[in-house]
Amino acid sequence: MAFDFDTLTNRLDTDSIRWDTFDHNKVLPLWVADMDFQSPPCVINALNNRIQEGIYGYTHSPNHLKHTIAQYLLEHYEWKVDPDWIVILPSVVSGLYTTVQQLTTTDEETLIPNPVYHHLRLACTSSHRAFKEMQLEEQDGRWVLPSNKLQHLISNKTKLALFCNPQNPGSTVCTNKELQEFGNFCVENNLWICSDEIHAGLILDENKKHIPLASISKEISEKTITLMSLNKTFNFPGIGLAWAVAETPVLRKVIQTGLDQTIAPPSLLAYTATMAAMKEGEPWRQELILYLRANRDLIYKKFDTFQDLSVATMEGSYLAWIDCTKLNHQYPYQLFLEAGLATSPGSQFGQDKFVRLNFGTQKSRLHKALSLIQSSIKL
């Protein structure tokens, strides 16, 4: 491989949330969803060159940024987007919170999946918005939304549906049929949609591809705000830049509420990193996928030997959603932590008897994590 993913990186003394929360001498931290790999050389070089310029004044986004994003979406997802539909954001999370606040009122309701990335839920609770949960079901090892069971959640107060694809924490990559069913359900019930697609560039299953929900039909597109970013794929979430795609002018106006006022724009380094990744990062991304795929397969192999643990099909991203319901333990997160492995507790995503493991790390660390899991369940 042209790029080195195996050499251990040292993230101590770098103010890392993941590595500083626990005593690194006692705990291997594989929880927060950033990777232990260096960003691509093209990103590092672009940032170094920008730093060497020595002037870091107020900065607007590059003149061709939206056109470059539109071309990137066309090349990678066969999604034809007008650059005017794109709104530059500091993060996907800020987009989630803004969408909920602006598209609903305190007496209206939002639909969110369960399990799901906790900020979809927090975007509602922090704004004092009621929500109902769309319970995902495991079907043939995949966590999916049962479209035939959603109608009973609808009332005259339901105005918005939040979506996550590839699914976090379940790793499902939705098919065209699944997306069409969900999108049509929202259109038929006159719901706005906000789709978190930050993991789009991390499809591991060779037989799957990321399909943006809004690309399914014009009717769905006109109801949808799509949130995307390269932060996860190229591992620079600490720099951060995202964008929203919204065909409908009213939705573009909504997602820009507070920008440059209460919500700061991306930093000049965020523009630099994102442009470099789009223009030159593809060879690195392709090798990253191969490495993550091998890590995923290592997890599959090890979990085949566990009677009381199971893991769903990991179609996308670097997150293993581990089912611990057969374990004779009330708090599986605590069980693994006491053994020396920090995962993300399932309660964070709405499921107490699960944990989420971040396998975006070197193989040696993953081997250690799997050994710690094995030792903990044999105690």
Residue ranges: pLDDT <50 for 5 or more in a row? Answer: none
Radius of gyration: 20 Å
> How do the SSEs run, as a string of H and E?
HEHHEHEHEEEEHEHEEHHHEEHEEEH
Q: Which CATH first-tier class of the largest domain would you pick?
A: Alpha Beta
Q: Pairing-aware structural class of the strands and helices?
A: alpha/beta
- Counting DSSP H or I runs of 4 or more residues, the number of helices is 12
The CATH architecture category of the largest domain equals 3-Layer(aba) Sandwich
Biggest sheet features: 7 strands, mixed
Oligomer: single chain
Number of strands: 15
- Sum up the overall morphology in one term: globular
Give the distance, in angstroms, between the N- and C-terminal Cα atoms. Answer: 39 Å
Question: Which topology of the largest domain does CATH recognise?
Answer: Aspartate Aminotransferase, domain 2
Please tell me the overall pLDDT. Answer: 97
Strand order of the largest sheet: 2-10-9-8-7-3-4
| Helical amount | 25-40%
